């Protein structure tokens, strides 16, 4: 409504891109359900948004369902879940990007307000030559340790998420992408790096250490991954996956 479009009506399921069905079909084959989430606005204002879900990647026609049906195994939350407690400068974003980011955050809060569930995301999906790779992207400065040399730290939470993908087997793998920066103030780009989860798990230091501040403002625990485990992210390197 805010941009002149009518978000009270649900889109035709046949209008959803085939690429989404293809990705979700891969997830379905290893036991992960995937749903297309669409907001419905009864009137203007974030408090008047509800979400409908349409399952994708299955070999039969589906219809929109209530979120309570999909999350029936989760306990109901008694208190409202708050938005993330940090500010971001959105001046560089165009109006379409602002709507997309708001939608993702509103959906996260909607799920966590109604159910005792933590929400995680996939930063992207890369289709390789024979494997499908969920992508985890982090911005990092390099650190140094006497035992393993230069390394990048990865919070335990995304590490466990990628381990979950690996446990599902099939053609489902994952890659960890690092945007290495000069420092946390200038955030000037040095190099883009990436590593597969198989190589990450093989070379990582399994002794966890304390990290910096996480997205929720608390302290983090990280797995140390030697920079030697990474390759520079080039078009040729990605084409080889």
What features would you describe in this structure?
This protein has 241 residues and is of the alpha+beta class. It has 6 helices and 12 strands. The chain has helices spanning 18-29, 67-70, 95-114, 156-167, 197-203, 235-239, and strands spanning 34-41, 49-56, 65-66, 124-127, 132-140, 143-145, 149-155, 175-181, 189-196, 205-213, 219-226, 231-232. The strands form 3 sheets. The chain has a 5-stranded mixed beta sheet. Strands 6-7-11-10 form a 4-stranded antiparallel beta sheet. Strands 1-2-3 form a 3-stranded antiparallel beta sheet. The chain is globular. The termini are far apart.
Keywords, please?
241 residues, alpha+beta, five-stranded mixed beta sheet, 12 strands, 25% helix
Structural class: alpha+beta
Q: Please report the distance between the alpha carbons of the first and last residues.
A: 42 Å
- Biggest sheet statistics: 5 strands, mixed
Order of strands across the main sheet = 4-5-8-9-12
Oligomeric description of these chains: single chain
- What is the ordering of alpha helices and beta strands? HEEEHHEEEEHEEHEEEH
Mean pLDDT: 84
How many beta-strand runs? 12
- Distinct helical segment count: 6
Uncertain runs with pLDDT below 50, 5 residues or more? Answer: none
Overall 3D shape: globular
Bin the helical content. Answer: 10-25%
Rg for CA atoms? 20 Å
């Amino acid at each position: 409504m805010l941009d002149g479009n009518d978000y009270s009506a649900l889109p035709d399921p046949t209008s959803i891109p085939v690429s989404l069905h293809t990705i979700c079909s891969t997830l379905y084959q290893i036991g992960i359900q995937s749903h297309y989430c669409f907001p419905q606005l009864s009137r203007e204002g974030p408090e008047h948004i509800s979400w409908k879900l349409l399952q994708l990647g299955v070999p039969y026609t589906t219809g929109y369902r209530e979120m309570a049906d999909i999350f029936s195994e989760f306990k109901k939350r008694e208190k409202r879940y708050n938005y993330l407690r940090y500010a971001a400068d959105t001046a560089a974003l165009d109006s379409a990007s602002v709507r997309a980011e708001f939608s993702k955050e509103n959906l996260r809060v909607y799920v966590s307000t109604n159910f005792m569930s933590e929400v995680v995301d996939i930063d992207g999906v890369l289709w390789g030559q024979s494997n499908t790779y969920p992508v985890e992207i982090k911005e990092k400065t390099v650190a140094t340790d006497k035992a393993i040399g230069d390394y990048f730290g990865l919070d335990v939470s995304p590490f466990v998420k990628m381990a979950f993908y690996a446990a599902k087997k099939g053609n489902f793998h994952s890659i960890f992408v690092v945007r290495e920066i000069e420092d946390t103030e200038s955030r000037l780009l040095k190099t883009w790096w990436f590593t597969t989860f198989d190589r990450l798990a093989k070379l990582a230091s399994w002794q966890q250490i304390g990290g910096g501040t996480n997205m929720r403002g608390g302290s983090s625990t990280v797995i140390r991954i030697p920079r030697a485990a990474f390759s520079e992210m080039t078009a040729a390197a990605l084409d080889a996956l």
